[in-house]
Amino acid sequence: MNILFVCTGNTCRSPMAEALFKSAASRKKLDVSVKSAGLFAPENGKASLYAVEALFEKNIALNHSSAPLSKEKVEWADLVLTMTEQHKHLAEREYPNHQDKIFSLKEYVKGKTGDITDPFGGSLSDYQKTRDELEHLLHQLADKLSGRAR
Prior knowledge:
This protein is of the alpha/beta class.
C-alpha cells in the first residue's frame, strides 16, 4: 500500500507524519511505502529544524526535502491523508478523479473531522505537541491497516 501525507509546505507536519508512520509501520511489519508532499511546497526545501529535533527526541531521523503535491504523487498513492480539512478540500478540488482516496488523517483514523495543529513558526514545544498528536494517530492508523483496530 502506498500512503501519501499532505500538508501546506511539506516542512513540518507531513514530513513528521511520514517519518513517524514509517517507524510505526516497520514495528507492525506493514508492507507500505510512504511519502509526503505539500500543497504549496517548494521543491527541495528543508524540513523545519524543530521538526527534525522533535523527531530526534524519539530516535527517528528526518532527512527530508520538501516536494509539491503532484498528479504523479496522487496517482501513486492508494491513500492520501491530509493534515487538515482545508488541505483535503483543496486536494479534492485539484484532483477530482481521486476523491475516493483523499481523507484528512483524523477523518480516516477516527471517523470524525479535525485538524492537526500547525507548529510552523512556533517553539520546540509546539512541534513536540504536534509530534505527539501525530504519533498517537499514526499508531492507530498502523493498527487499522494491520487489521487490529482498537
